[in-house]
From TrEMBL:
Keywords on record: Arsenical resistance
Lineage, uppermost ranks: Bacteria, Pseudomonadati, Pseudomonadota, Betaproteobacteria, Burkholderiales
One GO BP annotation of this record: response to arsenic-containing substance
Keyword DNA repair on entry: no
Domain Phosphotyrosine protein phosphatase I: 7-147
Record's protein name: Arsenate reductase ArsC
Keyword Nucleotide-binding: no
Highest taxon in the source lineage: Bacteria
Length: 167
């Protein structure tokens, strides 16, 4: 990670339709040019698109949804894929979800969030869950993007990201 190139963060979840999409869009919105967010899933469903309630939640918050799509993490293993500096899983271990594992040497952290699209609640209930999840993700990402440069060095970023999971 040089001081001139942005820190590339890949958010992973199983289906890449809700939490990881919220995180990608939010980081790109508040990243201040120092960060670039991406998202992917270990097993996105065929022809899956981001959750429409999630997209509406982002738009209502003034965060661009342009270019967002559900994709497999296989895209980031291709030779021309951008190199990631930090991989953050955003699935919910407490709910028994299996979080994807990313091979290689980027820094990694787990920031667990409950799936706002899960359950049989009404669309209004799900919209509230998406707003709550977006707020929680935004809070952690604000802390990350406002860290001083010395906290973002390759040797320090792993522990910094893990510490933010407790924030």
């Amino acid at each position: 990670m040089s001081e001139t190139s942005p820190i590339r963060v890949l958010f992973l979840c199983t289906h890449n339709s809700a939490r990881s999409i919220l995180a990608e869009a939010t980081l790109n919105h508040i990243g201040k040019g120092r960060f670039v967010g991406y998202s992917a899933g270990s097993s996105p469903r065929e022809n899956q698109q981001p959750n429409p309630i999630g997209l509406q939640t982002l738009e209502t918050a003034g965060i661009s949804t342009a270019g967002l799509r559900s994709k497999s993490w296989d895209e980031f293993a291709l030779p021309d894929a951008p190199h990631m500096d930090l991989i953050i899983t955003v699935c919910d271990n407490a709910a028994g979800e299996v979080c994807p594992f990313w091979p290689g040497k980027p820094a990694t952290a787990h920031w667990g969030y409950a799936d706002p699209s899960a359950g049989d609640g009404s669309d209004a209930d799900k919209a509230q869950a998406f707003r709550h999840t977006l707020h929680a993700i935004h809070r952690r990402l604000e802390l990350l993007v406002n860290l001083p440069t010395d906290k973002l060095s390759a040797m320090v970023i792993q522990q910094t990201a893990k510490d933010l999971a407790k924030a």
